[in-house]
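Lab notes, practical 5.
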Amino acid sequence: MHTDGLAGYIGAIVKVFCLSRHLGCLFHHQQGVSRYVRKYLGGLKQPEAEEVKKKRKQVVQTKDPRTVIRRLKRLEADEAKHHWGIGSWLATTWKNLDRLLPALSGNKYATTTNKIGRFFRTFKRFYKTRGGFHSVLSDKRKLILFLVVYLLTQSQSFQAANMNAHFEPARIVHFFS
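Output from the prediction step:
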């Protein structure tokens, strides 16, 4: 499960799905680097703060977990030499590394063979193609279009395209209420 790494999400997810594996998000990790520099490294001169920020962001700009570990170790050595004040950030990053490393792979989402996962992957493609929704009425119409097309195409792909079975319940549903 990918989240932005907020402790509230982690606690809530673990409560509901106790066996779930929490994965961090690289985008939010990188945002956190910028926030940390602004908030805690104000005492550094601007060029030095930018250098520290660049080095910290480069830690996860790779697809190889070994490179991340090597860069973190190098950053620890640089911190010991220059005393920038990023020791707490390094400790937190080491602690959360097991959640962050899976996000480096090209496959951002765990694959699933169940119908719910297939539905949401298809909806994500549809939403991206349609360019988002612009109003409540537009939302409803596009969602109805997606649901009808999805229902019919998935039924055909599973050799169960009995149109009467689909349109009989559809007559009961009030699409434009």
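Observations recorded by the TA: The mean pLDDT is 77. Residues 55 and 75 are 7 Å apart (CA to CA).
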